Amino acid sequence: IGKDGRLTREESEKLKIHPVVGAEILERAQFPYPVAPMVRHHHERWNGEGYPDGLKGEAIPIGARILAVVDAFEELTARRGNKAAVPPWQAAAMVATDGGTLYDPRVAAALVNRHEKLIQRAEAVTPEHLRLSLDFPSVGPKRPITKRPVTKQGGEAGDAGGFLDSIAAARQEAQMLFEVAQELGNSLSLDETLSVFAVRLRKTIPYDSIAIYVRREATLRPEYVSGENVKAISNLSIPVGQGLSGGVAETRQPVLNGDPLLEPGYPQQAVRPTVLQSALSIPLEGTNGVAGVLTLYGIEKGAFTHDHLRVLQVISAKVAVSIENALKYRQAESSASTDYLTGLYNARSLFLHLDSELARCRRLDSPLAVLVSDLDGFKQVNDRFGHLEGNRLLQRVAQKLKESCREYDCVARMGGDEFVLVLPGLTTEAVKKLVPRLRETVKLAGKEVLQQDVIGFSVGEAYYPVDGSDAEKLLAEADKRMYLFKSKAKLLAAKEAGYDFDTKLNPL
């Protein structure tokens, strides 16, 4: 709480909720040691005046009684804001004076008797030491977490270090879970969400490669890959039900220390196919079924433990929901800028792109061509073959136009059967050579879809800066020339068919 001064009664009551919330979060993690009761009851008091359940004396779990004393000691010895830290020996004495009222008197006495040794031990616990005691080494062989034997008195065999290591393990894991949950809800960008998650996860579960596959209909495609053999894994396309990750997606059951070589296509693409020898894979189940699969790969056999699996299972639902939300956001962004049928730029994106290109052309003093076009005979296509075939034709024409243009050219669908091309850097001469090729390309698309030569392609051109200096003028001029071309083409076709305009217009 960042408030200066005393809390109000309402604020104090709200504060008392935090042990319950913390315990509920930790219960989902299913720790192999009783962490949740410690957190829930560490604000209970020996005299029964604590919260949240008003437990008294021996009814308070021993772990919670120890945590209460440690929490008070840490609060006294920590420097926060303008509050000066109390020397450790004095803090221990202050806690001891509340033994029998706030704290278990035996635990408070133990703090006084052993605080110097415990402080020395705590100062000696480096991050590397913590990793070793948790059996989470950052390098070298990966070993499973082992539980220490428990004595009849409820403590752990060996010195007090085992108990401290267990507390450290719980605290590190809980902190990681909290950070992951917080980060996953901070962004709707899928790339950002997955990259942050991968970095956070590696602090707790050492892996050599990570792949987060997103399900697209009946196929898993790698959306995020990092680590060893990135190129090989990134090129995978895994059918649901096949291989390691595909099997996990189908059965919805995790796999611990599976064989990475089972992934379809991986052995053929990997430069060193034996570099990854074990895998931990879990399904990511969202609101609409399996949204994807998370697979961790290791360079050693048996690299992953049951505790690693447990941690992944705790956070898998949150990851799945975050992926679903990010995919929906991506789809919404795409729908706002692209045409739903052809995947080309829509009218809104066309104007934005054209304005941007015009600004660049003004800056560089370079030419720009704008082509407005539509399909001749498209209404007859819908009438004869149906609208579904008409849609297939539009999709094929869009694809052919994209293939006929350069990567940085813009091809957009204005609506109906009307397409616009923005061609930076092209002169009048270059466009005159391009247009006949576009007509042939569109005719070919019509034959492929309809098996008949039934459509034509009318094109109007406009050039910056000769025909206009803004998007509206260029599009209007190109549109006018397209209809002029269409009228001339109809007139020419009628004359070729033997239609006598003078006779029809001036009958005897």
Note down, in words, how this protein is organized:
The protein is of the alpha+beta class and 508 residues long. The protein contains 19 helices and 10 strands. It has helices at residues 9-15, 18-29, 35-41, 62-77, 88-97, 105-124, 127-133, 161-184, 190-202, 230-234, 243-251, 266-269, 306-337, 347-364, 378-385, 387-404, 428-450, 471-496, 501-505, and strands at residues 209-216, 219-227, 238-239, 255-258, 278-286, 289-298, 368-376, 410-415, 418-424, 456-464. Strands 3-2-1-6-5-4 form a 6-stranded antiparallel β-sheet, with helices on both faces. Residues 126-161 have low confidence and may be disordered.
In short:
With 508 residues, the chain is of the alpha+beta class. It has helices at residues 9-15, 18-29, 35-41, 62-77, 88-97, 105-124, 127-133, 161-184, 190-202, 230-234, 243-251, 266-269, 306-337, 347-364, 378-385, 387-404, 428-450, 471-496, 501-505, and strands at 209-216, 219-227, 238-239, 255-258, 278-286, 289-298, 368-376, 410-415, 418-424, 456-464. A 6-stranded antiparallel β-sheet has the order 3-2-1-6-5-4, with helices on both faces. Strands 8-9-7-10 form a 4-stranded antiparallel β-sheet, sandwiched between helices.
The ordered H/E elements are HHHHHHHHHEEHEHEHEEHHEHHEEHEHH
Q: Tell me the structural class.
A: alpha+beta
Radius of gyration: 35 Å
End-to-end distance: 100 Å
Helix content: 40-55%
Shape: elongated
Count of DSSP E strands? 10
Taking strands numbered 1, 2, ... along the chain, how are they ordered across the largest sheet?
3-2-1-6-5-4
Q: Give the rounded overall mean pLDDT.
A: 81
The helix count comes to: 19
Biggest β-sheet description: 6 strands, antiparallel
